[in-house]
């Protein structure tokens, strides 16, 4: 009876260790997935920041031309 209980206890402990191992492996796999996804998203953010900066510069360079053009139109309309 004692050895039977001991055997069941050992089997139960082994099963618990296996469940824990599977659980930890799943967590590690999930962590790796999230790290990979995070790296992709960080790269995308960097790309979008660079694009945004470039577009702002283009816009700033275009604004004086638009302002000059509007002034010329206003002057032309004033003369008419």
From TrEMBL:
SMART domains: BRLZ
UniProt KW keywords: Activator, Coiled coil, DNA-binding, Nucleus, Phytochrome signaling pathway, Transcription, Transcription regulation, Ubl conjugation
Cellular compartment(s): Nucleus
InterPro entries membership: bZIP (IPR004827), bZIP_sf (IPR046347), Hac1/HY5 (IPR044280)
Single Gene Ontology MF annotation: DNA-binding transcription factor activity, RNA polymerase II-specific
Biological processes, Gene Ontology terms: positive regulation of transcription by RNA polymerase II; red, far-red light phototransduction; regulation of photomorphogenesis; response to far red light; response to red light
Protein family membership: Belongs to the bZIP family.
The keyword Transmembrane appears for this protein: no
Designated name of the protein: Transcription factor HY5
Gene Ontology cellular component list: nucleus
Pfam families from the UniProt entry: bZIP_1
Chief location of this protein within or outside the cell: nucleus
Coiled-coil spans in chain: 17-51
Domain BZIP: 1-62
